Amino acid sequence: MTQGCPFTLDTTGSDLHGETAALREAGPAVLVGLPGGKHAWSLNRHDDIKRVLGDPRVTKSARHHWPAFVNGEVPPDWELISWVAMDNMVTAHGRNHLRLRRLVGKAFGPRRTEAFRPRVEELTDELLDGLEAAAPGEVVDLRERFAYPLPARLVADLIGMAEEARARTAKVIDAMVDTTLSPADAQAVLAGWRAAMADLIAEKRRNPGEDITSDLVAARDEDGERLTEDELTDTIFAILGAGSETTINFFDNAITALLSDPTQLEHVRSGRADWDDVIEETLRAESPLAHLPLRYAAEEIEVGGVTIPKGDPILVNYSAVGRDPRLHSEDPDRFDVLRADKSHLSFGHGPHYCLGVGVARLVARTGLSRLFERFPDLALATPPGELRPLPTFIMNGHRSLPVRVRARTATGS
To answer: What is the residue-wise DSSP string for 85-149?
Structure first.
């Protein structure tokens, strides 16, 4: 990060926590430079972020509340265009947001989440079976072989997307979170994911199934007032992207933390902590989402004594929340599953609180518990400090997670 007025965010994500600490020290709301010469206010302290996330004067709708976007000053090849051009429940405001959230929320109720458990367990075991084929001492990329495919394939199942189509779309999602993209690549990403969603919708119109896409297509076709075609396309993509990318990075971070400090894993094995403790501490210390583009001040607001003018973009620094010393005064940067207070905002807060929390926790608990049961001697194949971060300031994860695996024997020894 180059300090100045404004700060310029490091698009390579080379030192996410160092940059976050500097932003937090600089103030509760700091003007930062984004790709393409755009600016936003980075919010960096827990109390302020929580308050703003619940403030009705702050929205996620660029088409209504970002004058630069409304007036055509944001070009179609802007590096972050996919994050602001969407028309779905993520970017909707007011009554439109409530309408879309109700339609999608039906798919994530407790009953449907529980019905999804057998598939979560089946796919987890399938991927672990594949890891058992690794030769003794072989280095395996656990991100590619487990952390990535488990949530990605499960979310594809939820929306009814075939594996071949999911694999193609995954490349688009990976590119979307890469903040080192060129403008031409950014424009291609937007066109790519919309084309992929259009193909999926056309398929579900021909052959509906027991999946979220079919349900939303039916709602659209039965009553066009409930869902426009753009909202349908963009909402399905939001489910796919949000449901997979964040959980991929959660697994990456949780596994890295446990293997970097074996005493943490021993706390779980001894019963002093459980997998829920691991989940919450990972979300606190290593939020899978770093900075989320973008929100907008629908009216002038004040954050920690800083005035944010009406219409200005806002960037919520989720990676700053759980490590805020004002919230966690005792060694906030240390990963500790025995920590009593693991407060975080990694699932958001307020009207945009994550609908898929139940599914996410089910997948996290199942994946971690079965991975470490099957591979008790799992070990990093490289020092933690040499793991390369993803090239982004949006997500928090690694490009790869090299490990050595050894399955438990028949006697469990």
So the answer is: H--STTT--HHHHHHHHHHHHGGGSHHHHHHTHHHHHHHHHHHHHHHHTSPTT-EEEHIIIIITH
Question: pTM score, two decimals?
Answer: 0.94
What's the confidence (pLDDT) of residue 280? 98
HSE value, Cβ hemisphere, 13 Å, CA-based, for 166: 21
Residue 5 is predicted with a pLDDT of: 58
Please say whether the beta carbons of 216 and 233 come within 8 A.
Answer: no
Provide the token pair at 189: 């990403």
At 9, give phi and psi (nearest 5°): -65, 145
Instruction: Look at residue 96 in the predicted model and tell me its pLDDT.
Output: 87
CATH code at position 332: 1.10.630.10
Pairing of strands 313-317, 306-308: unpaired
> What is the model's pLDDT at position 413?
39
Task: Give a yes or no: residue 117 inside a domain.
Answer: yes
Task: For residue 372, tell me if it sits in a domain.
Answer: yes
Is 373 inside any structural domain? yes
181-222 residue pLDDT tens = 899 998 888 888 888 899 999 999 999 998 999 999 988 887
Domain range for 161 is 7-404
Q: What angle do CA 37, 10, 6 make, to 5 degrees?
A: 50
Helix, strand, coil % in the chain, rounded to nearest 5: 55, 10, 35
Q: What is the largest CA-CA distance in the chain?
A: 68
| Residues listed for the chain | 413
Residue 215, in any domain of the structure: yes
Phi, psi angle pair for 76, to nearest 5°: -65, -15
pLDDT in tens, 343-391: 999 999 999 999 999 999 999 999 999 999 999 999 999 999 999 999 9
Number of domains composing the chain? 1
